[in-house]
Every structure is written in C-alpha cells, then in structure tokens.
Amino acid sequence: MAIRHTKKKSSRSGLTHLDTDERPRMVDISDKDTATREATAEAVVTLPGAVANALAASGHRTHKGPVFDTAIIAAVQAVKRTHELIPFCHPLPIDHCDVDIDSAKTGLVRIRCTVRTLHRTGVEMEALTGATVAALTVYDMCKALSHDIRIGPIRLLNKRGGKRDFRRR
Predict the structure, then answer these.
(1) Closest Cα to residue 36, out of 129, 114, 128?
(2) CATH dotted code for 35-159
(3) What's the alpha-carbon Rg for the chain, to the nearest Å?
(4) Which is it for the CA torsion 81, 165, 23, 19, positive or negative?
(5) Helix residue ranges per DSSP H, the chain
(6) pTM of the entire predicted model
(7) Considering 21, 33, 140, 165, which one is annotated as catalytic?
C-alpha cells in the first residue's frame, strides 16, 4: 500500500497555520532543509523597590530557594516542553539552551533565553517560552514579598537560520 503525500497550501491570508479552507493545521516541514537555527528572546520583570532590595540583601533567595537559579532550571524545562504547550509547535531536539538573568539595582530583571537546534524549523517559540516561564518563576518565588511585580515586555530579540534572519534593533 502506497502512502500518498498531499501538501495543502497556506491560507489566502498567508498565515502558515491555516490551510486553504482556513482550518488550523500544523505546518509541514518535511521538505525543508536541516539547518542550524537559533533564537533569543527576552522577558523583563519589574520588581518594586522593596522586593529588589530584599532580593539583593538575601543573595537572590526567598524562603522558596534561589530565585534566579530556579528560574533558569524552569526555563530549560519549558524550552524542552514547548511543543506540549503550544498546539502547532513541532517537537524539536534542543541542542543548546542558555538562560542569562541580569538583575539591576533599579528592580529591572532581564531574562534572556537562547535556544539552538539543528532541524527543519526554528526555535523562536522555544526561546519565548523559556524566557516567559523564567519570568513567571521569578514572580512565583517573590510573590510573598509583593503582588506588584510586573512581567513584560516579552519579545523575540533575534533569530537566524531558515528563510530569513531577524534582529531587533
């Protein structure tokens, strides 16, 4: 028995996750070339002054444990499970994940998540998910100190590999 492979074109709107009948679908990547693909996303967490001071004084620890170390672990877990959270994301082999957390004395915490794979599709969603979950983890671990913690913006900073590269200016 032969398997017939049919590939529905993208929707009239140009959205790749909709077929010509405007129904949702997972994008077929079987014809794409394998390439190194990398993306970096950033999430910003704004801490009230009292929270920033308390964290700095404690070595970035709360009663739940080391805040930034825990956020890094959560980000890596999230990157690996993005396809379980976002319906049309492909499961990808993650070749590299790096999470950098920079905490300024002003209460701004910048979380950058860089993800790399050798595959047929990009890792923008993995990088965005990693940065977001790290930010949520910081919130969770600090919420006993204040509920006035803000998360955002969350944004893609750059990606390379695939059809076109992108770099935020």
Answers:
(1) 114
(2) 3.30.70.640
(3) 19
(4) negative
(5) 49-57, 67-80, 82-85, 124-142
(6) 0.89
(7) 140
- Residue 83, phi then psi, degrees to nearest 5: -65, -20
User: Could you tell me the CA-to-CA distances from 132 to 12, 20, 45, 79, 166 in Å, in that order?
Assistant: 32, 32, 10, 10, 20
pLDDT tens sequence across 73-122? 999 999 999 999 999 999 999 999 999 999 877 899 999 999 999 999 99
65 contacts 147 by C-beta, under 8 angstroms = no
Residue with tokens 């739940």: 64
Distance CA 64, CA 44 (A): 21
140 catalytic per annotation: yes
Q: Write down the domain spans for the chain.
A: 35-159
Q: Residue 139 is which amino acid?
A: Y
Neighbours of 115 (CB within 10 A): 32
User: How is residue 154 written in tokens?
Assistant: 């969350």
